[in-house]
Amino acid sequence: MTKFTDLNLNPKVLKAIEEAGYENPTPIQAGAIPPALEGRDVLGIAQTGTGKTASFTLPMITLLARGRARARMPRSLVLCPTRELAAQVAENFDTYAKHVKLTKALLIGGVSFKEQDALIDKGVDVLIATPGRLLDHFERGKLLLTGVQIMVVDEADRMLDMGFIPDIERIFSLTPFTRQTLFFSATMAPEIERITNTFLSGPARIEVARQATASETIEQAVVQFKASRRDREGSEKRKVLRALIDAEGDKLTNGIIFCNRKTDVDICAKSLKKYGYDAAAIHGDLDQSQRTKTLDAFREGSLRILVASDVAARGLDVPSVSHVFNFDVPGHAEDYVHRIGRTGRAGREGKAITICIPRDDKALAAVEGLIQKEIPRLENPVKPEPKKEKPARPAKSEKADADTRESRKDEGRERRRDEKPAQKQERSSGRGGKHGKRDDKAVVGMGDHLPSFIALSFAERRAS
Ligand code: AMP
Question: Which pLDDT does position 67 carry in this prediction?
Fold first, then answer.
């Protein structure tokens, strides 16, 4: 087995690795570090969780340890699809370069231009950026990319999903032709293949086993469930989720719940909090300081459950997540692999449970097709309530009351959404249904409410 000491890394980098507690290089590190140190281009096909960040940061630090940065001309550039991933790469640099004198700047949205400008003006060795923000700086004339000797593109497949490929091509064209390129992607879509053929020259190609097949330490399960009524789907799904969390008990030290939509991320986190769970949301619409605060709390262990969207969770490195829950089956089968890869990292055990409603059966089949295995089915922990005669109102627990309230609210929302405008107006003007009726019984004439004078005979009426 390859050892870190066999890799020709700078002794100061080796010292930092030892302090980080790593014993041996992971396969992507053993494969990518030697050609990177030789100055060759590298094409790494690997996912988060394989140790790919260190596979480019370690050789970069070793190569950059010689030489000095010049004003406004960074010597190396790392492009990441999201702010979180960029921040994480920056942290990796801090860890591994702690005994080497290197300067770095982080160009991501939500962080002030001014501070970053000042750093860049002085000159940085490593510039870590999201593509949009980097081009903003470039267009403001604050930055020259002609000094870039090493350029890294991390998670290129996600860049493709997020529509960043034109930006990436532009950035490539702004850097010198002689640069060294280290390019990482979890998959090789045709568009990615095209980019690598255009911008990499004779790269060393290192492919590590797909995580879904490699991570045998992740126990996977699917709960298939059908809501009792379509308009109760959301609340019943959340009930299933709570039951799944409860069933894991103390085994669940910390977990990430993935939702496909940002609105569901919010609703789920809010609902869990209401039920007394230690949960918080993270998604792209939250402001950066909020996202950072939540992530830090989760990393430190002071927050137990993180409810996340795919993009926000991308690259999120929390080494010891015990559980992943998929509130929805992801629309892209590959996202399933990314999501469950948050647990069972670096050989640890983990559990990934997915909730699947009938509408998501197709997506589930796609996931199983991709990972080439059937995910074991788990019985729905929420038993359907037996239909009973309506008894005198039983004393309900607070939790059950909250359940009912939540489901009623949901129903109300759904119903209002389905109403025709005329019905809406009628409801808001306080009238009943189409003819002002409040129930289905036809009312003839004045119904039961006969004015008493009508009941009198004609003679009686005249007399009165
Ligand atoms: P990455 O794929 O870069 O997101 O890394 C996944 C996790 O593996 C991170 O928590 C790293 O700190 C950790 N890691 C990276 N390299 C090693 C190694 N050689 N041995 C053990 N853990 C590592």
Answer: 83
**Three-state SS at 258:** strand
User: Tell me, what DSSP letter sits at residue 8?
Assistant: T
Query: pLDDT tens across 35-85, in order?
Result: 999 999 999 998 877 889 999 999 999 999 988 888 899 999 999 998 888
Q: Where does the pLDDT of residue 409 fall: very low under 50, low under 70, confident under 90, or very high at 90 and above?
A: low
Within 8 A by CB and 6+ apart from 310, the residues are: 258, 260, 330, 335, 338, 339
**Test site for ligand 1: of 7, 345, 348, most ligand atoms within 8 A of the Cβ:** 345
Indicate whether residue 346 lines ligand 1 (CB < 6 A). yes
Q: Which atom of ligand 1 is nearest to the CA of 24?
A: 19
Ligand 1 within 6 A of 49 CB? yes
pTM over 0.85: no
The 3-class SS string of 300-332 reads HCCCCEEEECHHHHCCCCCCCECEEEECCCCCC
* Domains in the chain with CATH codes: 4-207 (3.40.50.300), 218-371 (3.40.50.300)
The b/e string for 87-124 (b: 16+ C-beta within 10 A; e otherwise) is bbbbbbbeebbeebebbbbbbbeebeeeebbebbeebb
Question: 55 CA to middle of ligand 1, Å?
Answer: 9
Looking at this protein, which amino acid is placed at residue 103? Answer: T
